[in-house]
Every structure is written in C-alpha cells, then in structure tokens.
Fold this protein.
Amino acid sequence: MQKTKIPAVVSTFLVCFIFWVLLTWSFTAQELIAGGVVSLAVALFSARFFIHEKAFWFLNPAKLFGGLFYWVCVFPVELVKANVNMAKICFGGCKKINPGIVKVPVDLKSDYGQAALANSITLTPGTITMEVTEEEGQTYYYIHWIDVTAPSGKEAGDAIKGTLEKGLRRVWE
Amino acid sequence: MSAVRIIADILIGIGGIFALAGTIGILKMPDTFSRMQASTCIPTLGTVCALLGALLFAIFNKGDAGAAVKIAVICLLILVTNPLGSHALAKGAYKAGIRPEKKMEVDDLGRDLYGD
C-alpha cells in the first residue's frame, strides 16, 4: 500500500468537487462548503487508490490536446463504425458471426494507458477485453471478438485496436 | 417546430434504432459472449444518441443549464462504467465454465489459462 501524497489528494479533491458542482448546479455558499468538506474527506481516504503516477500529467498541453483529440475525434469514429457493423449483423439475423478469443500484444506501458485502451476496446461493440497477462515484459490482452478475421498476434491487434492504440500513445507515452 | 427540435428528434430516433438492433442481438445470438457483444450497442450509440437529443432539447428549447449538465454527466458516467461491467461479466462467465455450444474457432484464453 503506498502512502497518501499531497498532489494526489489535490487532484482527487478537484475531480470530486467538480462533479459535485456539476450535479447540484447551485452556487450558494452552503452547498459549496458542504461539497468541499465531503470532497476533501473522500480525497484524503481514497487518493492513494486512484493516483499511482504523476497527479498533474494532464497539465502538459501536448498530452491534454492528445487526449481531447482522442476522445472527440478518434474514438467516436471507431465507435460509430463498430456500432453500424454490429447493427448490420443483428438486423441480418445474427448469422454471419465467427466468435473467438484472440491473444493480442499491447505496446502501451503506463497502467492508465492500458486501462483506457482496455475500456475503449470493451466499449466498442464486437470486442470485449477478457483478461490481461504479462509475459517477458510484453503485455497481452485476451479479446473476445465477434467476427474473427485474422489469426492471433500482431495482425489481429491491428484490426481490433490499431487506431485506438495510436491515439492513446499520444496521451500516455 | 424549430430546427433544433427536429435534429433532437432525429437523434433520439437513431438511438432507438441502435437500441432495437442490440435487443434483436440479445434475443437471437447463439451464445453468452456474442449476446454480450450485441448488447454493447445499447449503452453506446443507443443511449448516447438519445441523450444528445435530450441535451439539445434542454439547451435550446428549455434553456435549462442544470438539466443539460446533468444529462452530460449521465452520458459520461454510462460511458465510463459500462465497459467495467461488460468486462467483469464476460470474465466471470468464462471463469464459471460457460462455453459456447458451437466450439469457438480460436480460443486462446481457454488454451493458455484454463487448459481446455
């Protein structure tokens, strides 16, 4: 268990407080103070579980814009493409499927980057990340794929997450 | 009827179409994991399109900033939490020994970790 650090507490507090303000959407002093106290308590107890690396990495403009670009331009396009594909399969009677679980190498090193990639893959219809393993320093995902068109390894990896990984590498490398 | 209202209605309709596709998939897919795949259509484009329509409606027809922000937060929370649930369900089902009736062509997880 790692120790609680001040920057981690500050960033967790900010996130909690912003969510509080967004959800209540009232700016009277009473509400803001109550939210501040609760956010601070939550941040003190949970910061060490949330923040494992640098707490303010997102203040680096290159990474900030990389992240914005990824979540506004790259990811929605992939999401819509996969959704249209899946809708076609479903309206066509669910006949043209070839499910399987493939093992795919992942080049992202950071924990956050790997978590973001796994979540992006799971959020796209047609692929679900099922397990993560590490062998000889190389991380592998086991991915359930609704329509297996490439054998396991690099080829399947490019087909499933090529664009996503390229976008995420700008944020977490 | 304003132009914004029409766009909002179209977005909600698109959301409905994708939710319908996901539902058909859940009912007709042959095995657990494929059903789970089809169901991902519902929270992603289904819900997000409907919420975008509601967001436009809240901003331009009602002028209600509080409601608009709440809709945006709902959208964000669904997108963040849905993959966690899908992943946990799929992994748990596989661990519990559920396999498709028709054997999967490639099954690296079973080969490497569970010795199928």
